[in-house]
Amino acid sequence: MGDVNEAELKRKLGIPNWRNLSKDKVIKFAAAMPEMATEVRLKLIEQFPAFKDLGKADIDAVAEAHKSTLAANENSQNRFYQASQDQRDALRTDLGRDDLTWEQREALHDRLDQNVRQVYEKDSESKQFLGAGMKLVAAAGAAALGLGVVFVGGKIAGGSEDGSDESR
To answer: pLDDT tens digits for the chain (168 residues)?
Structure first.
């Protein structure tokens, strides 16, 4: 460990300088990090602040897509709830009529009950959708954090390069 220097790493990646490090080569770069000495890693981090920006740009894109999806979902939900409310208002108006038979009233009550069940189902569906969306955003954040840990050569549950336990 710690045998790869900066020049050798650039040669392995096929780049003349760090500005030429593309997204597709970042994974190769991250995979080589454990082979480098800590001082080399830190020096590279200073020379390549754009690595952080690549991960941030990906997270920002996921967050923006998630925000857009949430807005579309909210708009759809609002239209559904308004249509359901309009139907309930019409059913209440019909139930207020004096000329209805018992069977007609019962049919209107059944339709009102069906409307309320549909609203409940739509609400449950929306909550599941939002939960899945939050899991996606959390997974993207965890992936970015994981890449950051790989980038600096950190180990989540391991010790340092000299074998000492840093968690104490």
So the answer is: 455 677 887 888 888 887 777 767 776 776 676 777 777 777 776 666 565 666 677 677 777 887 888 888 889 899 999 999 999 999 999 999 999 999 999 999 999 999 999 999 998 988 888 888 777 777 766 666 555 555 555 433 344 444 444 443
Q: Choose among 22, 1, 25: nearest CA to 12.
A: 25
Taking 3-state DSSP, the helix, strand and coil percentages for the chain, each rounded to the nearest 5, stand at: 75, 0, 20
Amino acid at residue number 142 = A
pTM above 0.85, yes or no: no
